[in-house]
């Protein structure tokens, strides 16, 4: 995958994520929320169409900081952070003075994407509660994440929780190894997308799915550039 | 002098918000912490009203509803934001988070119009095999717009 194609795909996927977020906010009955997010929707449309992407990314980044200030932090935790990181890296990829710096900016996004899986796998695997399946049982038993009451029933299936917990930890911690081969990376990204889909369905983390998906082209490009 | 100090504090705050986006920690779910719920009670001239869970999750969702929520889930995302606000209040008593919760409770409950209300945060955690609930915060009474607010105690 070429640098230009990776950049364009990242922009298009991020535009989808940003439009989805903006539309949800604009449905709010709260005064001012629709007005705050209308510019994001317009800019996301421009980004999807490839209109002045350098300026649009910079404007979206400025808007993202304004929103961060408005909510005194992220509205949607990690997905807002990944969205902003994509915007920072895209802005750098358009505005850095040298081609090498532009490439470095997109490579930084790919590196952070890899770390996002590896680090969250590591922090789980060092915790005995995750290794025994207790932590995942607790997520279903009493955390605020399950989207419906009946999902709490999964907490009563300890063997399933232990197996699922180990599958998640091993996938996350071994994810960086997939960088060594393009087929392994493609397969890993499919599994990763399925993981985010499951999180969206079970825990309502739909914005994570779109935000992480937007970062995938950067990793495919970096793999081809360094290992191809 | 104050304006200058305020703008420097604002820039530092902005930097503190921005840096975690540039250098994210990605430490998702290292441990399952006590989980906060929001409960609301309207306050009036009559007897005190019982606390009620604010927007408890539905008992069941169909597969089609779960898939649809991949594209459209404003209420669920607001619930996640409210959970973050609750955690911010528990962590450092942030007034912004308190105001956000009140504003969103009022917007979501038409029966709250014209009535004073308060909310509390109840955490749930596990001790051995037992689930333990603990009230960790009770907000001041929020008077409806136009009425004087309850003085801070």
UniProtKB/TrEMBL annotation, chain A:
Keywords: Membrane, Transmembrane, Transmembrane helix
Signal peptide from the UniProt entry: none
TM segment ranges: 42-68, 166-195, 201-222
Every HTTM-like domain range: 1-224
Pfam family, one: HTTM
Bilayer topology annotation: Multi-pass membrane protein
Presence of keyword Transmembrane: yes
Subcellular compartments: Endomembrane system
One GO CC term, this protein: endomembrane system
InterPro entries xref list: HTTM-like (IPR011020), HTTM_dom (IPR053934)
Listed name of the protein: Vitamin K-dependent gamma-carboxylase
From TrEMBL, chain B:
Domain of life: Bacteria
Annotated protein name in UniProt: Uncharacterized protein
Organism: Rubrimonas cliftonensis
